[in-house]
Amino acid sequence: MTSAELISDLQRKLAAGLAKIDPHHRLLGRPVSYRVIDGRTLEITYRDVAGIADSEVIGVKRVIGECSCSISPQTAERIIVRFVVQLK
User: Fold this and answer.
1) Is the model's pLDDT at 1 over the cut of 80?
2) Helix, strand, coil % in the chain, rounded to nearest 5
3) What is the distance between the alpha carbons of residues 15 and 13, in angstroms, rounded to a whole number?
């Protein structure tokens, strides 16, 4: 599978899976960007997130597979949630 196909597959999985694992819509409907790093790694960034629970992070990891997650402040009320996935 090419990188573009892998990214499309992850986007489809997230679109279908977020509705089930994000009942409070903390990620669903938030601005999201996808960035390929070094041709082998995909960074998925959600902005303007009010908060996120561990169970929601775990749910996203179940949907997209093995990945890492980081959370950083955006403003006093909003955070940025970033998932990094190796493209195989």
Assistant:
1) no
2) 35, 35, 30
3) 6
For residue 64, the enclosing domain spans: 3-86
Instruction: List the one residue out of 55, 57, 43 whose CA is nearest residue 86.
Output: 43
Instruction: Give the rounded distance of the alpha carbon of 30 from its chain centre.
Output: 11
Mean pLDDT (whole number) for 65-70: 96
Convert the pLDDT of each residue in 3-61 to its tens digit. Answer: 889 899 999 999 899 988 888 889 999 999 999 999 899 999 999 999 999 999 999 99
Count of domains forming the chain: 1
pTM as predicted: 0.91
CATH code of residue 16: 2.60.40
| Tokens found for residue 46 | 């959600």
Chain CA centroid to CA 10, Å: 9
